[in-house]
Amino acid sequence: MINLKEFAQRRSRLMKLMGAGSVAIVMAPPHLLRNADVEYPYRPDSNFYYLSGFDEPDAVLVLLPGKTARSIMFCQDRNPEQEIWTGARAGPEGVCRDYAIDEAFPIEMLDNKMPELLDGCTSLYSMYGRNSNFDSQIFSWVNRLRVKNRMGVKAPVAFCDVAALLNEMRLIKSSGEIKTMRRAAKITAEAHIQAMRTARPGQMEFEVAADIQHVFNKAGATFAYQSIVGSGANSCVLHYINNNQAMNDGDLLLIDAGAEVNCYAADVTRTFPINGRFSKEQKAIYEIVLQAQKAAIKQVKPGNLWNAPHKMAVKVIVRGLLKIGLLKGEPEKIIKSESFKKFFMHGTGHWLGMDVHDVGDYKINRRWRRFEPGMMLTVEPGIYIPANSRGVAKKWWNIGIRIEDDILVSKTGHEVITSKIPKEVSELESLVGHN
Ligand code: CA
What is the pTM of this model? Predict the structure, then answer.
């Protein structure tokens, strides 16, 4: 969905932002070991993939802006013997041919080649601080140039964070990116609906997690993050991923799960009663969260401040909790003192993109930034009432509810790209448990 041309355009945009006389070095990390000699599935680094579309490990992309801007890739060389075990590699030739890279070399040549490529560059852009081995490697090249200073060799003098530039680029999504994210949203919708249909009292949480995973994998996607499938008390644990408890009749199930398609994430939460019927208390809390979410989503439009949805969600939640007696006092005072955080302790959303908590600043010059068309974010208020909550009657315990959708800022307002996933009480009650 994102074509070669777009990857090339991103590289040239970045090179323009860096300016002549600079160089960028972006690394694709090696495989990570899970245990002994078993590797984790490989997921490319977001920035590296954003600039190249290349998903092999052990590669380094070098960008040299200037009149004759060049993209250079160091990658794993072809190796028929190795490829029998680990699959086909593009190799330098394939990288130039299939990824529109100007020059490519085997990764083994990196150490020899880099000092010569860095010679004369003033500013060196990289992702410092991510991988200390790679940081040391970069400075070993710089030091090799420094000692040749008398021969007229010039080492870079400014070391800049390439991510600072990339973060801003990645924050505004292109039409290709939006299309990819719509696909992730569609698969995520199918998975959540499937989970609603199949969930039953007595099932284990991991059975629901498996149903979700099945839908993702069947569609050729993977998960963007570990699915959270928390029933009863676990619905109040924000990052619960054990998913190993039996689901009880009368409890709620909170599912936070999103598919990843070509390195782009969806991130959705739904909460529903496992037996298909909300209790009076569950319904009361659910309606507050739903109302808060809808009101918050309305605040997403170009020109509005980043925290406008959160402010609105807090307002609606405080009002709702006052009405049912879980909070007491003046709304303004509760908001000011943040005593609502006992029940709603997280923010109302985050940027969404290649990383589930995507890059991009939330404040500019210490002020909340304004929404612009092409930004993608989540809106996800919640109320959580763990057992033994002080001053809270037992009937409210173990109710944890979050409702989360993915929102695109459009030219005129917003679009909820995950709107196909039911969230009305009546919709959920008629869907849950009806396979
Ligand atoms: Ca989430």
Answer: 0.96
